[in-house]
Amino acid sequence: MSWQGKAEDTGHIEELGAVQGPSFSAKLKAHFRRFWWLHLIIFIACTLIIVLCLIYVAFPHISQHDIDKSTLTVQSLILSNPTPDSFHLVQTSVIGNDSPYHPDLDAFNASLSLDGRVPYAYIEIPAVHATAQATTVVDQDVTITDLDAFIEYNINVLQNEEVNLDVKGRTALHEMSFPTTNVDYNKTATMKGLNNLTGFSITDFTIQLIPEADGTNMLGTVNIPNPSVMTLSMGNVTFNNYIGNTTDPALYVGTTTLTNLTLVPGNNTIPMRSTVNQSLVLTQIVESYQNGMLPISIVGNSSVFDGQHLVYFEKALSSVTQHVTLDVGKALMEIGVNTSALGGGGALPPPPLLL
Ligand SMILES: *[C@@H]1O[C@H](CO)[C@@H](O)[C@H](O)[C@H]1NC(C)=O
Ligand SMILES: *[C@@H]1O[C@H](CO)[C@@H](O)[C@H](O)[C@H]1NC(C)=O
Ligand SMILES: *[C@@H]1O[C@H](CO)[C@@H](O)[C@H](O)[C@H]1NC(C)=O
Ligand SMILES: *[C@@H]1O[C@H](CO)[C@@H](O)[C@H](O)[C@H]1NC(C)=O
Ligand SMILES: *[C@@H]1O[C@H](CO)[C@@H](O)[C@H](O)[C@H]1NC(C)=O
Ligand SMILES: *[C@@H]1O[C@H](CO)[C@@H](O)[C@H](O)[C@H]1NC(C)=O
Ligand SMILES: *[C@@H]1O[C@H](CO)[C@@H](O)[C@H](O)[C@H]1NC(C)=O
Ligand SMILES: *[C@@H]1O[C@H](CO)[C@@H](O)[C@H](O)[C@H]1NC(C)=O
Ligand SMILES: *[C@@H]1O[C@H](CO)[C@@H](O)[C@H](O)[C@H]1NC(C)=O
Ligand SMILES: *[C@@H]1O[C@H](CO)[C@@H](O)[C@H](O)[C@H]1NC(C)=O
């Protein structure tokens, strides 16, 4: 049984093997002849799926990737007409785009914030053709939507060498005949800050024994370096002055006012008007600073524009202290007061003007 069966099987296999080759290809041809339409449909469907994936999945993905890779550089930022809850902004930025694609972005509403914090305002970024270096100019009145966030932003701008400005929004991107795709525009522009106004100095001053009508009895010039690209209108700014490295009320010696202060990038040379307690100055010179060199601590106090206090500048200005040393002995000598003769005894050092 089994032996017979085996012989039968072998024969059967040989028979099959003999016909398989030609008949398979023939069958295949026949199959294609019969079902060509099915294969065409499958081919078209596959092509469609690939093309649609490219257009609707890969293209938005590539677009988002290119947006994420693009850079944002703030070239200039001019803040003017400040009110307690708004300001006018003219901001010129450059969008850098390495990609071979130069898409068009629609205008969009973007939030401004500091280093990933809560936004302090929203601006309208104009439409842009994203070439390798595309310049955009925002020129609009901006409402401060979160005062605490804006205070924080100003404190950071004042105190730091660099700050990160986040610009976030969502916009439509158009590239050739691809369908419009929406992209997240999340960019961080690193900008130079005011670095604690390092280099702040009083370059000259004169003391007046008879005060002006508003009490001003010291006039001078301050130099404020602004290493940033920002122009800031801060209105009438006042500082509280103290004798020594202190903010002890007992050593409060008066206020300094910078009228219509607008800090521009670079060196700012600004006239200052001060009201000082001259009797305190004389007492301190006689008691503690016989050489006439008076160390002064200067702390921001108020920023008033058109009669309104700008809390966001006040909080920032009052967060840093400037230290200067004034040659008060020499200034007094110029108006005929010899502080050495007042009883100090210490000889007046000759030239070094001031710091
Ligand atoms: C911008 O977006 C913010 C938050 O979504 C919204 O409050 C504000 O009204 C928008 N501004 C404009 C001009 O659409
Ligand atoms: C600026 O001054 C603040 C407060 O005095 C200080 O914390 C900060 O480190 C200073 N910033 C720089 C860049 O020196
Ligand atoms: C952009 O920021 C928004 C809001 O913070 C966030 O929802 C979105 O996921 C971010 N998109 C990208 C691509 O980082
Ligand atoms: C002022 O005093 C503080 C500490 O009390 C010190 O760290 C700082 O260096 C002093 N500044 C000057 C200019 O003397
Ligand atoms: C300050 O600015 C106001 C208007 O912003 C102007 O009327 C005024 O004359 C200016 N004062 C000085 C001293 O420049
Ligand atoms: C700014 O002024 C200071 C002092 O007058 C000077 O040493 C410095 O070189 C000036 N800087 C610029 C950029 O003009
Ligand atoms: C000036 O300082 C003296 C202390 O030396 C003080 O008694 C006097 O009240 C101060 N004057 C003013 C106007 O603050
Ligand atoms: C300004 O100075 C006054 C006292 O001279 C003080 O009461 C006030 O708190 C100061 N404001 C700021 C923002 O430092
Ligand atoms: C600054 O004060 C002066 C004199 O009080 C005033 O004429 C001017 O309008 C003030 N400036 C601003 C910007 O408010
Ligand atoms: C100032 O007074 C001292 C001590 O009385 C005296 O030695 C010095 O010559 C005086 N200087 C001037 C310029 O009068």
Automatic annotation (TrEMBL):
The chain crosses the membrane at residues 35-59. Keywords: Membrane, Transmembrane, Transmembrane helix. This is Uncharacterized protein. GO terms for cellular component: fungal-type vacuole membrane. It holds the Pfam family DUF3712.
